[in-house]
Design brief:
The chain is of the alpha/beta class. The chain contains six helices and 13 strands. Helix 1 (6-21) crosses helix 2 (36-49). The radius of gyration is 18 Å and the shape is globular. The model has no long low-confidence stretch (mean pLDDT 96).
């Protein structure tokens, strides 16, 4: 038998998250990215079939909002619904304590605002995203204000917890950390992103999270610490679930 493609693995975990954790009457946070895409797709299917009823959902990006609208998923915002039953999203890296790096797709601020308010935060990944320590496998995104962005980039790079990292301003499309244009990338919120490239594992993710968040000019960052309820992992030998 042939190995499942990455898209098929993403679809399996995206569908399973909705099937296992979403029930009628819930307020649901919808993540952003190629894996979360399948969770949104599945929610649309189950609403259309009538298996799920009375759901409202909160999207974490413009593109997730557009996908959900195309599937007739009823949408609300945190302004009217500050408490969520469950949020489902992918991640760029997951460490053994289920701390995450997110924001490769540029939606980290809205994702964090929504997911921190969820009773359960379900993370969906393929096994390539699991790591022993955050940092070297995927650059850490930091969303900053455009005002004096070069100053803020230098300030971040000089933080003691960020020592040894390369701070790179994201260029081109905000939804990719690979430079694909000459303009500075702009998030859904009108901000810029600095990607921190680490050569070795971040020793103390919660400390770095605090240092970054306390830096004036930083809006937020892609370290999601102590937020995960469960990670659903698609691997070559099937699906496994790791609970916090």
């Amino acid at each position: 038998e042939t190995a499942l493609s990455q898209d098929e693995l993403k679809k399996m975990v995206g569908y399973k998250a909705v099937d296992d954790y979403v029930k009628s009457g819930m307020v649901v946070g919808l993540g952003t990215g190629s894996t979360a895409y399948f969770a949104v797709e599945r929610l649309g299917q189950l609403l259309e079939s009538g298996e799920l009823k009375d759901i409202v959902a909160i999207p974490t990006s413009v593109r997730t909002k557009e996908q959900a609208e195309s599937l007739n998923i009823p949408l609300v915002t945190l302004d009217t619904h500050s408490k969520l039953d469950v949020a489902i999203d992918g991640a760029d890296e997951v460490d053994p304590d289920l701390n995450l790096v997110k924001g490769g797709g540029g939606a980290l601020l809205r994702e964090k605002m929504v997911e921190v308010m969820a009773d359960k935060f379900i993370v969906i990944v393929d096994e390539s995203k699991l790591c022993d320590g955050l940092g070297p496998g995927f650059p850490l995104p930091v969303e900053i204000t455009p005002f004096c962005h070069e100053h803020t980039l230098r300030t971040i790079a000089s933080l003691s917890s960020c020592a040894g990292s390369d701070a790179v301003l994201r260029m081109g499309s905000s939804s990719s950390n690979v430079p694909d244009g000459d303009e500075i990338a702009v998030t859904d919120n009108g901000n810029y992103i600095v990607d921190l490239h680490f050569k070795e594992a971040i020793k103390d993710a919660p400390k770095m999270a605090t240092e970054l968040k306390n830096t004036v000019g930083v809006v937020d960052h892609g370290l999601f610490c102590d937020m995960t309820t469960a990670v659903i992992i698609a691997g070559s030998d099937g699906i496994s679930v790791k609970e916090a």
